[in-house]
UniProtKB/TrEMBL annotation:
Signal peptide per UniProt: none
Coiled-coil portions: 111-183
Residues annotated as domain YknX-like C-terminal permuted SH3-like: 338-405
GO cellular component assignments: cell envelope
The protein, known as: HlyD family secretion protein
Subcellular location: Cell envelope
Keywords noted in UniProt: Coiled coil
Keyword tRNA processing carried by entry: no
The UniProt record lists the keyword Endoplasmic reticulum: no
Lineage start: Bacteria, Pseudomonadati, Pseudomonadota, Alphaproteobacteria, Rhodobacterales
């Protein structure tokens, strides 16, 4: 009996020890699982990323030189054109406006009045010619008498003066004829219609042909505004021509706070443009004028336009044309050998930046001085050294001295 009681006591003691050990293990502080990263050295840059679009720097808008009828445009968008050779449009003169009954009646009356005035001028011309003939005959007779000593010198002078006056009257009457002829033509011109032969100038027998418009530059047709035959007033746009290979540039609208850091000459990478690889360029102008634009979320923003010249050769951007959407990454700062820490390791400790450094299985908080931060990496000025192991995405309850272990992803 004594031996059975001893065995039962031993079993109870062992069970109690196991329970205590389990409770100690259950409530013993465990190491916090975290993701770890390293402080490294290498190239780092800070960019301003923004959506933009391409445009031809010098796009030529071909407009109508006269009021007239535009014939159907034969060129299509994308067609190559050669300066001074390729015919891009043809125009015919416009049909004169039709006259209403009252205006036509007035025009007919004006023609009749002009023709009557012409008849008067012709009669005056005949009278002046008769006076001139009479004065000339009188002069001839007076000259013969003066030569014989019968007529006085004064009579000869009067005859000469009368002859000259008669010739002047004759010249005046002839000029009046020309004037009245012009008045008749002017009055008749009001009645001219498009199909009237007199619509065209007699001195130029080619005015009934189409007015030819040639390409002002060599390039491609970017847009045809009026393709079909139509009547247009002078100055109306017909089509747009530009040189996509040599004059293509990128325009981006930057938030004004980002535009402050962008300067002329900053290098640019063009990505997500639809082709392979990234294109290169540089900022050539940041406009000094900002405009209020509404974002897709309905928020008003101040935007500033920056213009980027494409440095990549045309063969590297085949297919990229006018008005295409691209994404520009403008490099506003870069360093070849910067001390870098992942941005996800940084957190605020009062007014300072801080990180948790892994040291012998424990987390040690350390304040650091940060320079540029591009959202993925931050430049370290002070507080860390190359190779330091730091905690990424530190939990809110992590404190200095806490045991940590690296999380393993299976």
């Amino acid at each position: 009996m004594a031996r059975k009681k001893l065995s039962r006591s031993v079993l109870i003691a062992i069970a109690a020890c196991l329970v205590c050990a389990a409770l100690v293990f259950a409530f013993w502080p465990r190491a916090t699982m975290v993701d770890l990263g390293h402080v490294s050295r290498g190239e780092m840059r800070l960019t301003v990323d923004e959506q933009g679009k391409t445009r031809v720097r010098d796009a030529y808008v071909i407009s109508t030189p006269i009021d007239g009828r535009l014939l159907r445009v034969q060129v299509q968008p994308g067609d190559p054109v050669q300066q001074g050779v390729t015919v891009v449009a043809q125009m015919l003169p416009a049909n004169p406006a039709a006259l209403d009954i009252r205006t036509r009646g007035q025009a007919l009356a004006a023609v009749e009045a002009a023709e009557a005035a012409l008849h008067v001028a012709e009669a005056n011309l005949e009278a002046a010619r008769a006076d001139a003939d009479l004065a000339q005959s009188d002069l001839d007779r007076t000259s013969r008498l003066a030569g014989s000593g019968i007529a006085s010198p004064a009579a000869l002078e009067r005859a000469q003066s009368a002859a000259r006056a008669a010739q002047a009257q004759l010249a005046t009457a002839a000029a009046a004829i020309e004037q009245q002829n012009a008045q008749v033509r002017s009055a008749r011109a009001v009645l001219i219609g498009f199909n009237d032969p007199d619509f065209y100038d007699d001195e130029n027998d080619h005015t009934d042909q189409a007015r030819i418009i040639h390409a002002p530059i060599s390039g491609v047709v970017l847009q045809v505004i009026h393709q079909d035959e139509t009547t247009l007033s002078v100055g109306s746009p017909i089509l747009v021509i530009g040189d996509v290979e040599q004059d293509l540039e990128v325009v981006v609208e930057l938030i004004s706070s980002d535009a402050i850091n962008v300067h002329t000459g900053d290098p640019v990478e063009i990505v997500n443009w639809g082709g392979e690889g990234a294109l290169t360029g540089k900022v050539i102008r940041v406009e000094p004028y900002g405009e209020t634009k509404v974002s897709a979320l309905g928020v008003e923003e101040q935007r500033v336009t920056a213009v980027i010249h494409l440095s990549s050769p045309p063969q590297d951007r085949i297919g990229l044309g006018h008005g295409f959407a691209v994404e520009a990454q403008i490099v506003v700062w870069s360093a070849e050998d910067a001390l870098r820490v992942p941005s996800s390791a940084l957190f605020r400790e009062g007014p300072d930046w801080a990180v948790f450094v892994a040291n012998d299985g424990t987390a040690q908080m350390r304040r650091v001085t940060i320079g540029f931060d591009n959202g993925q990496e931050a430049e370290v000025k002070e507080g860390l050294a190359e190779g330091d192991q730091i905690v990424l995405y530190p939990p809110a309850d992590l404190t200095g001295g806490t045991a940590i272990t690296q999380r393993v992803v299976e």
